[in-house]
Amino acid sequence: MAHADRPHGSPLPAACAVSDEGALAGRQFEEAAHPYRSPFERDRGRIIHARAFRRLAGKTQVFTHRCSDHFRSRLTHTMEVAQIARTIARTLGLNEDLTEALALVHDIGHPPFGHAGERALDEVLRRHGLRFDHNLHALRIVDHFELRYLAFRGLNLTLGVREGIVKHSRDYTEADHPELKGLLLDRRPPLEAQLIDLADEIAYLTADLDDGLEAEILELRDIRREVTLFERYYAPLEASHPGGTPKLLFYEALKRMLNALAGDLISETAWRVEEGGIRDLGGIRNAAQRLAGFSPEMEDLRLEAKRYLYENLYLSDDLRAAHKEAAQAVTGLFEMWMADPSLLPVSYQSQIADDGAPRVIGDYIAGMTDTFILTLYRESGSARSQDAESGVEGKLRKP
C-alpha cells in the first residue's frame, strides 16, 4: 500500500483536530456549559436518546424483508460505523467525541427500505418540484422534528455536528440551498466529518459481504474469485489453518480486510496532511480538496469490492423483488395522502399550510420504519379491495 511505511500510531498535529472550546462547539441557542461533559459528548447523548435514532432499528440496511435476526439494520450499521470512525479518529489524534456523534447521526435521515426507499421518495417528490436528500432531511430532524426540550425546538446540536451532518459525504452551495446558510458551505469540512463517509464505506463493504453470504445470495467461492482484497487474506489463512471451517476463515479474512481498509485510510490521510504542509484546522478547511481518503491502490480494491456487491447483491433478483414492493408502498401511500390529506395524522395535517402537502407527506414517510409503512400500505390496499367488492367506503387506520 502507498505510504504503508508511515506508522498507524502517528497522530496529526494537535491543531488539526476540532477543539471542544472553539466556534464549532457553539449552539444556535446558548446553553450553560456542562460540569463534566464536552459539547460533543452532549450531542452524542442527545442523538442516542432521539426518537429518530431509535427508529433506525426498524429500518433496512440492505435486506428489506429480514428473514434472519442476524442481518444488519440501520441501527447496527450505525454502531459499526461509529466504532470504526472513533478508532480512526483516535489514531489520527482527532476529536473522538465529535467523530462519534457524527457517525451516530449520519444515517438518521434515511427513509424506510434503505436506498430503494430513498429513490422512490425522491421520485414522487420530483413530480412536485421537490427532492429528497437524506443529509438535508437529517438536519431537519435534529433542528425541527425532535421535540424533547422546553427551551428550544430540536436538539440544539453544536455547529460542528450540524455542519458535519450536511457535509460529511458531499458538498453543497448556498446558492442552491439558502436554508443552509451559516454551515460554512464555502469551506472544507473538518477531518472528523470527512472520515465519516469513508468509515461508512468500510463498514458496509465488509458487512454486506457477511449479510449476503448469510442470506445465501453470495457464495464464498465467488467472493474469493472476484474480491481481490478479501482473497489476499483468505488464501494464506486457509493454508495456515487447514482445520479451520470456511465460516471461521471467512470471518477472519473479513476482519483483516476491514483492518486493511482502516489502516490504509489512516496512513493515506496522515500522508496527505503532511505532504500538504498542513499544521492546523484552517489548513484543512482551505485545502484544494478533501484530505481524508484511501491510497490509489486501496481505492482500486475498494471499487472492485463495491462493483462485486452491486452486481451480485444489490441488483440480485431477491433484492429487486423487495425493492419493488418498497417503491410501491412509498408511491402508493404518498399518492393516497396527496389525494386525501385528511387521512394523515392531525399533527401532520397542521403543517401543510406552512410546508405544503408534498413536503409534509415526504417527511412523514421518511420517518417510518419498514414494518410500519408496510402495515399501512397493506391495510390501505385491503380497504380499497373491500370497497370495490362491497361498495362501502373503507377507512385507513390513522396512526
Short description:
It contains 18 helices and no strands. It has 399 residues and is mainly alpha-helical. The longest helix has 30 residues.
Q: What does the model show?
A:
The protein has 399 residues and is mainly alpha-helical. It has a single domain (14-318), classed as Hypothetical protein af1432 (Orthogonal Bundle). It has helices at 39-48, 51-55, 74-92, 96-105, 114-126, 134-145, 159-167, 191-214, 220-226, 228-240, 246-275, 281-285, 296-314, 317-339, 346-349, 352-355, 357-366, 370-390. Helix 4 crosses helix 8 and helix 10 (228-240) crosses helix 11 (246-275).
- Contiguous low-pLDDT stretches (5 residues minimum) are 385-399
Structural class: mainly alpha
Terminal-residue CA separation: 54 Å
Q: Please tell me the CATH architecture by its name.
A: Orthogonal Bundle
Give the proportion of residues in helices. Answer: 55-70%
Q: What is the CATH class?
A: Mainly Alpha
- Let me know the CATH homologous superfamily: Hypothetical protein af1432
CATH topology: Hypothetical protein af1432
Overall strand count: 0
- The chain-level mean pLDDT equals 92
- What's the helix-strand series? HHHHHHHHHHHHHHHHHH
Whole-angstrom Rg: 23 Å
Give the biggest sheet: none
Number of helices: 18
Q: How much strand?
A: under 5%
How many domains make up the coordinates? 1
